[in-house]
Amino acid sequence: MQINQSKEGNTIVLQLAGDLDASSAIYLDEELEKVLAMPVQRIFIDFEALQYISSTGLGVFVSYMDRLKERQVQMVLYGMSAKVHHVFSILGIDKLLTIVPTKDAAAQII
Amino acid sequence: MIRSGLLPVLSEQLRERLLIAWCFFSALLFIAFDLSRFEGLFSQQSIGLGNFEKNLLLVQFELSCFLLFRELQHRSASLSFLEQIQKVFSNALFVLLLALIIKTFLFLNNRGGNMDAIHLVLDLIFFAAVCLFLFSSFFTWKRLISYQKTRSVARFWSVFEWMILFAIFFQLLDFHFFDNTFLLAIGAISSLGLLLSFNLKWVAYLNLVQKGQSLLLILTAAACTLFMYSELSTLSSTRFFKTIDLSGNLVVFSLFVFFISYSVISLLVVTFNLPTSSVFEQKFGDLLLFQRINEVIELGRAEKEVAQALLEGSQSSTASDAACLDIFSDQDSGIHHFATGIDEDHFQRIKHGLFSTTGHVESLYFQNINLKKILKQDVRQGFLSALVIPLRTSRSDIGQLILLKKVSDGFEKEMVDLVKSFTISGAQSIHNTRLLNQEKEKERLQAQMDMASEVQKGLIPLSSLENDLCSVAAAYKSALEIGGDYFDLQMVGENLAFVMGDVSGKGASAAINMAQMKGVFQSLILTHPDPASFIALANQAIGNCLKERSFITLLYVYLSAQEKNFCFARAGHCPALFYKSRTGESSYLNSKGLGLGIIKSAGFYQHIETPTIPFETNDLLLIFTDGIVEARNTLLEEFGYERIEAFLVKHVAYSVQEICRLLQEEVQQFTGGHWDDDYAIAIFRFK
Question: How far apart (Å, rounded) are the C-alpha atoms in residues B384 and B400?
């Protein structure tokens, strides 16, 4: 998996590409840890190029939910394929995370 | 070489005894014969035996001595050098004592007449004793000469032994001292003896005290031997009847010459070696230390013991004033210090000064470091030179040894080499000990894992069940010894409660959560078997047990026998696949749900639906974990929900056990044998 980090104003954008499975989940975890160490208000996670996500990959998002709430950092996930979205919805966390179809939609969330 | 070819068939012990008997008997025969000749001379009766017969008897006595001591030589193999010299010394002293006793006896009883016969016998006994002494010493010297022998020495000695054997028989020819042949023979034997006498490697292995002792012992033995020689030559020249004719006895004469020449050369060599003894002793000390370190290594001792042995060994072999050893821990970044001759604080200051001024530590290794140039007076506090040696293993440096001396330029090349070899052995030993401990730890963990695996197997119910309500088949596998997938079923009256769960993550922590889940299931179904209460309470109970980052997905199914339906709650778990036998339709039971432990508050309830589905005879319900769905093939495609559904529809006619087995086979085949996730499957056929 590849993770590309960029900064747009007070938003950090993480572009995920490839497979997010048991072996690559740790890289996303490390990356999020780094991002949270910065003075950030919004995190965009771009799923556009992500092919696959496993239940372990979901675990990473679950594990950051509480902390993001505490820090009052907004995390927006967008660009998910139907397949990837299905995995989120099975676990039920699609209701707990902010998931929008596109980046534009994400930008409109205040 | 005249190997034990003689009488080879006899046992060693028997051979020894025979030789002793022969020796004793031939000595008696010789004496008796001489006595009879002596008597015969007096009585003017010739018994017809002359010089040749006498010589023959003498030869066989000497031969028996030679063979006897040759046979006995291996006995002294275990003696030290000094003990062997002591043996020669005591033998010499014994013969001397014998000579003095005989002399005194003859002096006191000097009344002529029959005394001459006694005189003769005593002289002969003395001669026999000297012969025995000379042959025994000959073989003792042989041992000393042969110590660390080269091939040429072994060959020369072999020739020398043959020459001595030849000398024994030479007497039969009745040559005399001033004959050219005799002189030639004695010259040859003596020169070879002298040549061999320069093999004195044993001297180097004695310490100063031992050298002093051997000096005295050899000197005394040589003096005794000279006395014996003079006694014998007096006898041979003064007695009117030349029983003991030394001038014609080539072998005795040669042995005397050889004994004396080896003694004299030994004396000289030992004397000149006295001043260098300390160096040799030092080398021996080093060797012993080396041995000690090796012993410590072989026994796989504790790191501390190896370090201590290494430290002391290095310090004493280099005569350093202080030594410090740092061993880097393999578990954390800690360093264990060992020091002698210096306090910790002072050592740290020197070390700091040493490494900070030179920057690169490796550049100091194996160098004779001049501390005067590097450190200030107050830091080095009298130490003038230092040596730093790393403890290297094939993988990495595991420590370093620092030696300090209060003299400048204190570490010579051979010292550095020696300490280097110490540290190599020491480092290897520590490395081995560590590997051993790691291996032990691994084994211990494995044993615990195996035990845990056994315990966990006990948590999983039997793989199939058959009752009035349904038939069930189930399978379970964990990628590691223990896993986080779980299923359980329990009859609650005539109803049946079933649960399947998957703890996020793998291994021990997942397995513990799984065991907790079992506890939660078993206790909750007694009081709250209905899915809505069950799942809400389970979230509360297990939520407190889970770590921040883990969660459990769960599918809880409650079968009612009366109502012919089942109610279920899906807490983020893969939806179950339901097959209606009557219509031949299948569908995933998708309902709202959320994994346990994700929301710990009471609000969790809002995220859960608990639908109720009626069932009819032969309807199927397939429940599984994501290990089945997410099994991927070499193209990284998932097995997925569609394939599961297609599989079930195709296999509805099979028994639940068959379906369970075939599904696993199908997935295994799909992945091409790379299926290494935890998984669980359960399939119900309703009645």
Answer: 19
The listed CATH number (3.30.428.10, 3.20.20.70, 3.30.450.40, 3.40.50.300) that belongs to domain B299-437 = 3.30.450.40
A100 interface with B at CB cutoff 8 Å: no
Assigned CATH topology for domain B462-686 = Phosphatase 2c; domain 1 (3.60.40)
> Cβ of B574 and A93 within 8 Å?
no
CB contact B553 to A (< 8 Å): yes
Min CA distance, B592 vs chain A (Å)? 7
| Vertex B100: Cα angle to B98 and B104 (nearest 5) | 120
- Which amino acid, residue B401? L
What are the residue boundaries of the structural domains of chain B, listed by start? 79-279, 299-437, 462-686
Give the minimum alpha-carbon distance from A32 to chain B in angstroms, rounded to a whole number.
14
Backbone angles phi, psi at B381, to 5 degrees: 45, 60
Shortest alpha-carbon distance between residue A80 and chain B (Å): 17
- Three-class secondary structure assignment of B201-259: HHHHHCCHHHHHHHHHHHHHHHHHHHHHHHHHHHHHHHCCCCCCCHHHCHHHHHHHHHH
C-alpha distances out from residue B223 to B93, B136, B214, B259, Å: 10, 17, 14, 11
Question: In what helix (H) or strand (E) does residue B177 lie, and over which residues does it extend?
Answer: none
User: What's the pTM value of the predicted model, to 2 decimals?
Assistant: 0.52
pLDDT digits (tens, 9 = 90+) for B390-426: 888 877 788 888 888 888 888 877 778 878 887 888 8
Report strand pairing: B620-624 vs B679-686: antiparallel
Of B502, B607, B636, the CB nearest to A95: B607
- Give me the residue from B504, B594, B598 closest to A56, CB to CB: B504
Complex confidence, ipTM = 0.90
